[in-house]
Amino acid sequence: MEFNIALVKGDGIGPEIVDSAVEVLEVIGKKYGHTFNFTPYLAGGCAIDACGEPLPKETVEGCKNSDSVLLGAVGGPKWDTLPGNIRPEKALLGLRAALGLFTNLRPAKIYPALAGACTLRPDIIERGFDLVIVRELTGGIYFGERGRREGKYGPEAYDTEAYSVMEIERIARVAFETAMKRRKNVISIDKANVLETSRLWRETVHRIAAEYPEVECTDMLVDNAAMQLVRDPSRFDVVVTSNMFGDILSDEASQITGSIGLLASSSLGSGKCGLYEPIHGSAPDIAGQNKANPIATILSAAMMLRYSFGLTEEADAIEKAVNETLEAGVRTADIVGDSGATPVTCTGMTAEIISRL
Ligand code: NAD
User: Fold this and answer.
1) Among this protein's residues, is 49 annotated catalytic?
2) Catalytic residue status for 223
3) Pocket lined around ligand 1, Cβ cut-off 6 Å
4) Please, which pLDDT band fits residue 347 given cuts at 50, 70 and 90?
5) Rounded CA gap, 138 and 270, in Å?
6) Which of 223, 232, 285, 316 is catalytic?
7) Cβ contacts of residue 355 below 8 Å, gap of 6+?
8) pLDDT (tens digit, 9 = 90+) per residue, 142-156?
9) Reading across the β-sheet that carries 238-241, which strands appear in turn?
10) Among residues of the chain, what percentage have pLDDT more than 90?
């Protein structure tokens, strides 16, 4: 099969880690008989430098016309003092909006070989965890009506949360479909004891759950979920939640894995085209030094194969090679911990993974 992939390398370590993922995809292409065509586009700080804006029109058009987008990271101190509307981060919001990406999928799992980096107690880690957070990305309080006004106690500010049945239905379906490919368990997180939007959320999720009798679906209040994630993450398979709750819980979930350089994410819309990126930033402190951990971006590429291209076997092969590389004790500097291993470079880690494909 043939796929067109837009590469948005971005800033800082972005180019190094995207190049690593491209190398891996090229090997997969050869091995399984696929052609991946890569077209680079500018976004973020490098686009501000080259064209005076963080998200040039050609980038939006190129990404829209591709089968999927692989993104490194954007931003850095060089652009930190620019006004909000021309900051590098604008490129991310702009791309998500242009591609109609309403779902963010963020897996968080513990790698036994890296259990030492996990902040949880050994008896909790022993049970292992492998969960995915399905976060609604384009609705809720981050996009609701907001403003400043004169209130009962003087000047005040307000933000409003609104969710339509349609928005909840479509994110719930993504969660149930994801669960069907995993352990068939969905936990829907809300604050239905207080919020009306959460009551509608719960009602709607239950209605969609009836379409997936094989999937077990339960509700959990967000405050309890925040506790359960650190108390017993093994009980979660697929978590579905609103934009703000998902923002907070997905950061909590990634933190408990103890390894930011390993975590991938994908943003999806109603079509097959998705945006795949590591969850970390552009790491300006190590940019250009060949020290970055490429695993999160390589795993993002694996997610692209799985979720946008339907290439399950190929995605499995990448994930297995990453696992085996970690099991073999290969470490970049960020995950050396107290292992005593001599850190490998970004290109070194990439070569080790490729050698196991
Ligand atoms: P960061 O994730 O870039 O870095 C935090 C720390 O983790 C740094 O010490 C960094 O060296 C390390 N780190 C991150 N990724 C790594 C990797 N793959 N390998 C090894 N070490 C890694 O977060 P930050 O320092 O808060 O932000 C730096 C810049 O990135 C900022 O301009 C920020 O706005 C931007 N940012 C971009 C995105 C994105 O593009 N999606 C996300 C977060 C932050």
Assistant:
1) no
2) yes
3) 13, 73-76, 89, 92, 260-261, 277, 280-286, 292-293, 296, 334
4) very high
5) 13
6) 223
7) none
8) 889 999 999 999 999
9) 35-41, 2-10, 68-73, 274-278, 264-268, 103-109, 130-136, 238-241, 185-190, 216-221
10) 86
- Of 69, 137, 260, the residue with max ligand 1 atoms within 8 A of its CB, to mutate for a pocket test, comes to 260
Question: What's the one-letter identity of residue 160?
Answer: T
Strands (E), the chain: 2-10, 35-41, 68-73, 103-109, 130-136, 146-151, 154-159, 185-190, 216-221, 238-241, 264-268, 274-278
Q: Is 338 a catalytic residue?
A: no
Q: What is the pLDDT of residues 4-16, one digit of tens each?
A: 999 999 999 999 9
Asked if the domains at 1-103+263-357 and 119-256 fall in one CATH topology, the answer is yes
User: So what's the pLDDT on residue 118?
Assistant: 83
CATH superfamily of domain region 1-103+263-357: Isopropylmalate Dehydrogenase (3.40.718.10)
Specify which residues 219 forms β-bridges with: 188
How far apart are the CA of 281 and the centre of ligand 1, in A? Answer: 3
As a 3-state breakdown, the chain gives helix, strand, coil percent values, each rounded to 5, of 45, 20, 30
Asked if 297 contacts 264 with a C-beta cutoff of 8 angstroms, the reply is yes
Q: What is the CATH number of domain 119-256?
A: 3.40.718.10
Confidence of residue 340 (pLDDT cuts 50, 70, 90): confident
pLDDT value, residue 83: 86
Per domain, the residue ranges of the chain are 1-103+263-357, 119-256
CA 226 / ligand 1 centre spacing (Å): 24
| Structure-block tokens of residue 37 | 């065509």
